[in-house]
Amino acid sequence: MLDKNILTQTEIKKELRMALLEEREINLSGKVIDFLQFQSETINNGINLEGAIILGSISLDGAIINGDLNLSQALIKESFYFSDGRLDGTLNLENARINGVVNLVGIKITKDLICKNLNLMGFLGLAKTEIKGNADLTNIRVSDSYSFGLIIRGDVYLRETNILGNFIAVNAFLEGSLDMKNAVINGNVILSSIKIKENLILKDAQIQGQLNLEDATYKEIIK
After folding, report:
1. 143 within a domain of the structure (yes/no)
2. Domain that holds residue 150
3. Within-domain flag for 154
């Protein structure tokens, strides 16, 4: 019965065409989708995937999306890839669950990155990312992943990341490390009550605002 409820790729392309003609966001909210792939494509609308179930991966590497990308409350059963792309809007992953990694390395986001209550397996890659608003990882949970005897650590990478607003990870839980080497944060870095099982790496990070580590726990801080 589930197969009959899965949105086909033909139906997805039809929704893309209709949204473009009607000058509205692409509405895939609440849908069940086998996979989503728009690598190196330009999409002139925002995409609403709120509450959607993606049975495979989302692959948007190199894509340009002219609008918001809403994945709040979505379930992605594999990984989410959006490296080296551009999002002219907000990326919303609030309350989403991803059973794989999230790779946003090198992406440019013109508004906010919202990862509040995001639960993922593996790493969150934000290295060399440019975010013009805030990056909010409040209550995020990044767990180790195990595959064929290998461990993918639950790290959050922000090496050489540039955030114009604040970086917030209040009450976050990371099974790996938080690596902010060479990151530039023009606002505050708020890590109160964060739990990092491995290391907090701040070597050569430039934080223009305040650094809040109240009640934060980690194995070692590396400056």
Report:
1. yes
2. 112-223
3. yes
On average, the pLDDT of the chain sits at 96
For residue 16, give the H/E element and its range: helix 9-21
| 3-class DSSP state of 19 | helix
In a domain, 95, yes or no: no
- Give the C-alpha distances (Å, rounded to integers) separating 157 from 1, 97, 174: 40, 19, 11
The answer for residues whose C-beta is within 8 angstroms of residue 11's C-beta and 6 or more apart is: none
- Is residue 153 assigned to a domain? yes
pLDDT of residue 4: 53
pTM of the model: 0.96
| Residue 35 CB burial class (10 angstroms; 0-12, 13-18, ≥19) | middle
Residues 33 and 53: beta-carbon distance below 8 Å: yes
Residue 13 binned pLDDT confidence (cut-offs 50, 70, 90): very high
Domain count, the chain: 1
Is the pLDDT assigned to residue 7 strictly greater than 80?
A: yes
